[in-house]
């Protein structure tokens, strides 16, 4: 496990990169009042969720699974470990292959530097992002050694932090530099950069008043392969959608999103589709939804009640090329009923993790011809080409 200097001055002495001391940003107010209680808008009629009961039944066998994995479970013989022993066991856990992704580097303002040891990529258990969900996050793709739409994602990141009443530990330009440095140290040329802002560690109270320093974390994940846009099935989610105040904020409160994704998978689908409080199409579990009408309109629900997807907004811009060459008649954003959506010629999911993914079935309704549509493929090609050779406004070179 990597050794972390106890202080920034110690880090400098050992040659480690050191982050600037945390400071407040003039663009965000200091912590004052708490957010109001979360309210959830009503969703569509509930369907049975057989997987929940199965998960509870499966939990009774968890001790046996833990034993087979080598986890110490004897309640009468729980060891007390030193820091070095904990570090050794974290290294053993990492070597076991329990993680299925390649974590190339992590920055943490807690230890004030970057580590490339995945077993050291941890955060304090009393960080309020962990036990209260008081944190926000965002993601930028890494393509051919460039960060894609980092500026656009950072803008949304800071808007989310403002809404979540999280003071900035550093200014925007400093955070931007730290994120780029983390990717540089990772040597990752294709994958993703995920980053979080938290009110920070301090205690296990509900109020964040005991958290002295907000925290910034970032992780680089290598992903050498690019998903091919194959058709998928979706289902209408029975999980209540988040209220618009929280839906437009990219916070770490993703339990409704995770349950919507899981519900889709247990029903043989890729994900679930949320409807808003008026019954109109909202969004997928962590992606936007788009349609192509019989009149060749590219139609997307408005962003006033859902997360404003950076990839979706870029797709809408790139789609102007398809209007220019006659493949689309126009691009429009408005309310979309379920009936209209299911009657569309094409349906697609749009997000940074999937780019553009065609939908060929929604619940029991086949969409269009039941095959991947030409507009979805064209939009996928456009966004992929933009990631590879787009303008400097969307591509930032990483100085490896």
Automatic annotation (TrEMBL):
GO terms for molecular function: catalytic activity. The keyword Nucleotide-binding does not apply. Residues 1-48 are annotated as: Disordered. GO terms for biological process: amino acid biosynthetic process; carboxylic acid biosynthetic process; carboxylic acid metabolic process. The keyword Hydrolase does not apply. Its cofactor is pyridoxal 5'-phosphate. Residues 1-35 have a biased composition (Low complexity). It comes from the Eukaryota. Keywords: Pyridoxal phosphate. Coiled coil: none annotated. Belongs to the class-IV pyridoxal-phosphate-dependent aminotransferase family. This is Uncharacterized protein. It comes from Setaria italica (Foxtail millet). The gene is LOC101752610.
């Amino acid at each position: 496990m990597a050794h972390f200097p106890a202080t920034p001055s110690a880090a400098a002495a050992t040659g480690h990169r050191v982050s600037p001391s945390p400071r407040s940003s003039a663009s965000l107010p200091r912590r004052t009042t708490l957010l109001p209680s979360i309210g959830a808008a009503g969703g569509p009629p509930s369907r049975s969720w057989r997987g929940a009961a199965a998960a509870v039944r499966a939990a009774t066998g968890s001790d046996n699974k833990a034993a087979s994995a080598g986890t110490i479970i004897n309640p009468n013989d729980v060891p007390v470990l030193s820091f070095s022993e904990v570090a050794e066991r974290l290294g053993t856990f990492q070597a076991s292959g329990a993680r299925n992704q390649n974590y190339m580097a992590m920055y943490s303002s807690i230890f004030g530097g970057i580590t490339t040891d995945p077993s050291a990529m941890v955060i304090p258990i009393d960080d309020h992002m962990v036990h209260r969900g008081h944190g926000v996050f965002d993601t930028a793709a890494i393509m051919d050694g460039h960060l894609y739409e980092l500026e656009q994602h950072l803008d949304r990141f800071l808007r989310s932090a403002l809404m979540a009443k999280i003071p900035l530990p550093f200014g925007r330009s400093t955070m931007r530099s730290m994120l780029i440095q983390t990717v540089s140290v990772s040597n990752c040329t294709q994958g993703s950069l995920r980053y979080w802002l938290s009110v920070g560690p301090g205690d296990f109270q509900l109020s964040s008043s005991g958290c002295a320093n907000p925290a910034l974390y970032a992780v680089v994940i290598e992903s050498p392969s690019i998903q091919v846009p194959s058709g998928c099935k979706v289902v209408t989610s029975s999980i209540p959608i988040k209220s618009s105040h929280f839906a437009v904020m990219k916070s770490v409160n993703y339990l409704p999103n995770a349950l919507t994704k899981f519900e889709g998978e247990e029903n043989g689908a890729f994900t679930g589709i949320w409807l808003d409080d008026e019954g109109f199409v909202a969004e997928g579990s962590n992606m936007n939804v788009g349609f192509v009408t019989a009149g060749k309109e590219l139609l997307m629900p408005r962003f006033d009640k859902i997360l404003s997807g950076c990839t979706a907004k870029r797709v809408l811009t790139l789609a102007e090329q398809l209007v220019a060459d006659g493949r689309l008649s126009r691009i429009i954003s408005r309310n979309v009923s379920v009936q209209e959506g299911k009657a569309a010629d094409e349906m697609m999911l749009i997000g940074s993790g999937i780019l553009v993914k065609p939908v060929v079935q929604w619940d029991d309704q086949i969409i269009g011809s039941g095959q991947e549509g030409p507009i979805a493929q064209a939009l996928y090609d456009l966004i992929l080409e933009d990631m590879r050779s787009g303008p400097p406004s969307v591509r930032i070179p990483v100085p490896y």
